[in-house]
Specification:
The structure is a single chain. The chain has a domain of 59 residues. α8 packs antiparallel against α11, α10 packs across α12 and α11 runs antiparallel to α12. β7 and β8 form a beta hairpin. About 18% of the residues have low confidence. With 560 residues, it is α+β, with helices and mostly antiparallel strands. It is elongated.
Length: 560
């Protein structure tokens, strides 16, 4: 207050301050007054000389005119204790003007960069496009179809096997087949027969010397195979259910990733706006300090400090322009859209979005996760399939029984063939390596089943861990929004007071630069906190197994 009154008094007497002084305490006010009186005396002596007034400082504007003062501020101490203005709950994201961006390449649009087009897309459009076009979802659906046909193929093993064949050729020689049951012509005409006879006097030798055609057909039905068919089909059914659950898990993961990529794009837009404002502020501060230096109210050091800060802010803006374009490419990659198309958020307001109700406590969230997480269902079906695989592995140790029926037709021509009907029941028992090979396979199947059980238990613990972690991150992010809002309010007031103190000779240029950095950091922290909360809510929704297009875009949170 004393410094302000002293400044007003000196202004009335025609004395101008050469440069705003560093903060002076009340104890040093006598020294400050002595210095100002000396300056006043030197100025009066200078004006008494011929043409001495040309070097007078009367034409130099005071810092309050050179620096744009806050309309709500005053040099009084009461202004320094004014309450900070409230910070809006919503961050506006207008599309930046091209003149505010820094040209990276003369042949490129500074906003779209290497892209050949742009379009806006909303969060709901992002999720719908992901469901329709995402490659991971397409691959998972293909796996479901593959396993579906494997399951249907295993059901076909309940039906009998059909066989059929046709042969044609030429045969010459003697056929010895005891069931023919007819006398040989050669045996009746000569006593020295080369054939052998049975006790009934029937000859079993037939001379063959002609072309022949043979046709066979029949059915084979395996009545019993040790449970291989039945439990093999049940195993494939469990594997099909596991693939379907895995496909739902892939869908949930993809929807969450698409949501995260969209929010990251919004964050990049917000950070670009912050960097643009930082460059504008640094540019204005450099202009002010340059004017003050020209009028003798600032030093070259102040100008260089402002120029350095401007260079840093421009570098950060260039980096952010590239980061925004990179975020758009990442989103297009997730959606399987052309990477040359620059995507922009249709929502131009960044706000806090709650997806899960605060009424749901951790126990209820874990119950929802156990009931709805597709990963748990997938591992449970894999465990059941592994148990059935044990029975399938024991099938080779048991005999197999089957019914067979065949028709065989043989003759010199197709039109002259007499059919022979053959039917039989057979039991087959084969032990590979005296059963050691099959026993080893059984033990292997048992340990696989044990592994699937442990994996299912591990997945359950992982799911419960994810629910608790996501809840804590959501609570942390929500609290950080409050803290960063206070940070923005205090940093804004810090910059205002730093400028005010500089105007009145109580601060330095470096104080303003530090205040600018603090305000930029506060804006970034607040935007990051809002995005972190929105992403943590989407993560919590994913971890309780309720991820869907409607739940991710609904204005009302999930209540269970």
């Amino acid at each position: 207050m004393q410094n302000a009154e002293l400044r007003q008094q000196l202004t009335k007497t025609g004395v101008k301050m050469i440069r705003p002084f560093i903060a002076v305490t009340a104890a040093a006010s006598i020294t400050l007054g002595t210095m100002l009186v000396a300056v006043q005396a030197a100025e009066a002596a200078d004006e008494a000389k011929p043409n001495g007034g040309a070097r007078a400082l009367a034409a130099v504007p005071p810092p309050s005119q050179a620096l744009p003062a806050n309309p709500n501020s005053s040099p009084s101490s009461g202004a320094e204790t004014a309450a900070p203005k409230p910070v809006p709950d919503v961050i506006e994201l207008p599309k930046p003007e091209l003149k505010a961006l820094i040209t990276i390449d003369e042949q490129m649009n500074p906003y779209e960069l290497e892209a050949n087009g742009s379009r806006s897309i909303s969060l709901r459009q992002v999720l719908v496009t992901a469901v329709e076009e995402n490659l991971d979802i397409g691959i998972s659906r293909t796996r479901v179809s593959e396993q579906k046909w494997t399951y249907l193929g295993s059901l076909g093993k309940f039906l009998p096997n059909a066989t059929g064949a046709y042969y044609t050729g030429y045969a010459r020689g003697k056929l010895n087949f005891p069931i023919f049951g007819q006398k040989s012509a050669a045996a009746s005409s000569t006593s020295s027969s080369s054939s052998t006879s049975s006790s009934s006097g029937l000859s079993s030798v037939t001379n063959i010397n002609s072309a022949f055609n043979a046709v066979t057909g029949g059915l084979n039905y395996q009545v019993y195979q040790g449970g291989r068919v039945v439990f093999g089909a049940l195993q494939n059914r469990n594997l099909l259910r596991a693939e379907r659950a895995g496909s739902k898990a892939t869908l949930s993961d993809t929807l969450f990733k698409a949501t995260q990529d969209y929010y990251n794009l919004m964050l990049s837009e917000a950070l670009l706006q912050i960097r643009i404002r930082a460059v504008e502020t640094s540019t204005e501060q450099l202009r002010i300090n340059s004017d003050l230096e020209a009028n003798g109210l600032a030093t070259n050091l102040d100008v260089l400090q402002s120029r350095t800060q401007l260079s840093r802010d421009r570098q950060d803006q260039i980096t952010q322009q590239v980061s925004r374009r990179t975020a758009a490419i990442t989103l297009a990659d997730t959606l399987n859209l052309p990477l040359g198309e620059d995507l922009g958020p249709a929502e131009r307001q960044l706000r806090k979005v709650r997806l899960v109700s605060t009424d749901l406590r951790v126990g209820e969230l874990q119950r929802l996760a156990i009931d709805n997480r597709p990963e748990l269902k997938q591992y449970e079906e894999l465990r059941k399939a592994a148990k059935k695989a044990i029975i399938v592995a024991t099938a080779p140790l048991q005999p197999s029984a089957g019914l067979n029926g065949n028709i065989v037709a043989l003759g010199p021509h197709v039109s002259h063939m007499d059919p022979i009907y053959v039917g039989y029941f057979g039991i087959n028992w084969k032990l590979n390596g005296l059963g050691t090979t099959d026993l080893s396979n059984v033990q292997n199947a048992r340990y696989v089943a044990r592994q699937r059980l442990l994996e299912a238990n591990k997945e359950l613990v992982t799911v419960l861990d994810q629910v608790r972690t996501s809840l804590l991150k959501s609570l942390q992010a929500e609290r950080n929004i409050t803290e960063t809002t206070d940070e923005v309010a205090s940093a804004t007031e810090e910059l205002r007071l730093a400028r005010l103190r500089f105007e009145n000779g109580l601060g330095t240029n470096i104080d303003i630069i530090n205040a600018q950095r603090d305000l930029t950091t506060a804006y970034i922290d607040r935007a990051q906190a809002i995005i972190n909360f929105n992403v943590s809510q989407a993560q919590l929704l994913h971890d309780i197994g309720l991820t869907s297009v409607d739940n991710l875009t609904s204005p009302n949170p999930v209540h269970g």
